[in-house]
Amino acid sequence: MLFGRIDHIGVAVDDLEAAIELYGSRFGMREQHRETVESQGVEAVLLEVGDGHVELLQPLADDTAVGKFLAKRGPGLHHVAYQTDDIDRTLGVVRDAGIDLIDETPRIGIRGSRVAFLHPRSTGGVLTEIVEPVH
Ligand code: CO
Questions:
Q1: Which of 70, 114, 117, 128 sits at a 20 to 30 Å CA gap from 108?
Q2: What's the 68 CA to ligand 1 centre distance in angstroms?
Q3: Helix, strand, coil % over all residues of the chain, rounded to 5
């Protein structure tokens, strides 16, 4: 198995506080973590749902990846993130399988995790993130 489980679903939002209120009051999801992730140009909030998370993403500027996504598509589902124990190995496996990588090498993501994104043109239109949590 390449991926252990779904780590989180990324959701692009244009109003972080409104989104937290929506998920909190309607779905009862608790805010677990909040962080400015400079490497992704976002203010991110993790909401608890079972062992996984919903990751709310509000862009720090219009010219970031999420900012451009919002301008083009509006708020909504942004990416799916799969968890792995060994991101270097996993990246090598998917590269060898012909998947186009956005990140040739992992970068630091939320909560000190190591992350890498795969290009949606080779994943059926789904922006895909691989996450190796801090051990
Ligand atoms: Co993510």
A1: 70
A2: 16
A3: 30, 40, 30
Mean pLDDT score of the chain, rounded to an integer? 96
Cα of first residue to Cα of last residue in the chain, in angstroms, is 19
Mean predicted confidence (pLDDT) in 69-98:
97
Whole-number Å distance, alpha carbon 102 to ligand 1 midpoint, is 14
Q: How far is the CA of 89 from the centre of ligand 1 (A)?
A: 19
Any idea where the domains of the chain sit in the sequence?
Answer: 5-132
Yes or no: is domain 5-132 CATH 3.40.190.170? no
